[in-house]
């Protein structure tokens, strides 16, 4: 008698594993919504910290709630001496994602309440991460350039403070707004690979820092968050806007994945892309240097060629990569910028997972040798 092989869903494609009240892509509008609000509207009218509050609490804050939330976030920004020393001791050559992963793991080791459960404790830890991760990213950026860190400024908003800590100045409001839009759009996307990783870790009743550390590891890969960095490497490899179509044909023939294109959920275009592209176009118009114009032309040529050759549309990483470059960020920082934002979504999911937990433990179909006796002797 032959055993029936169960249907296999490689990559868990199309598998529904749980319910969530945090976000969804509404089919009728192909639009991502956080707690029911379309991201396009949030990106147009709200700040990133309001969005983090929304993801964690289920509702937008009123004026008083937002003021208190901001005061707490600003107070939590500074790193203690031990963390600063630990990070300063890491090899300068290590990838900024490794620095972030190490930092979050260390925050867990330092926090005596690491294993405490309960929503209030989770929200406090989540806010601590939201406040401190930009400080880690900025300090690491400066360390790689051989520069001293710049302390966070409690008088500056979340996005402004990040520029201040990286570059010692805050750019024009339009640039800050474009960055804030990217943070809002990156903040949450349901059961994506890194969020699912965080939920798997949480489902074993492990702690929040372990879940976020694991999620950072999952985001690092180039099929997920690492794609924004990979987009810029790819554009540098192509080099010339005139070469984009030929380069693409060769790459597709070699069965290469074109970074920043395609999506597991969106098959007819990522609903976050138009708003990010518009904001990026404003940066391009503002910069207007020959180098910027050429990079933007190459970016546009590749997008058109990919849509016409394969019908595969860009995902958020494609315009975000160009925007981050125009803002002056080094390419290896791109995925850490994604982490600074997505930590809001991860931690919302960690809290939701715990609220109605079930251990996540799928099955696999065994394809190894048939049962056999262990050789005797030796
Ligand atoms: N380049 C070339 N071909 C592609 C791409 C791409 N970027 N995306 C999809 N395809 C092709 C596949 O080769 C496949 O073709 P086939 O049926 O002839 O084999 C078909 O489209 C279906 O693609 P899958 O890989 O099955 O789609 P899946 O849902 O598994 O993949 C993924 C989604 C991993 C995002 C894929 O599109 C990809 O590798 N993109 C490049 C990396 C990237 O940009 N990742 C960022 C994701 S979004 C985010 O994290 C914010």
UniProtKB/TrEMBL annotation:
One of its GO terms (biological process) is carbohydrate metabolic process. Pathway: Carbohydrate metabolism; tricarboxylic acid cycle. Keywords: Acyltransferase, Transferase, Tricarboxylic acid cycle. One of its GO terms (cellular component) is cytosol. It catalyses: oxaloacetate + acetyl-CoA + H2O = citrate + CoA + H(+). The active site is at 263, 317. The keyword Acyltransferase applies. Pfam families: Citrate_synt. The keyword Transferase applies. GO terms for molecular function: citrate synthase activity. Belongs to the citrate synthase family. This is Citrate synthase.
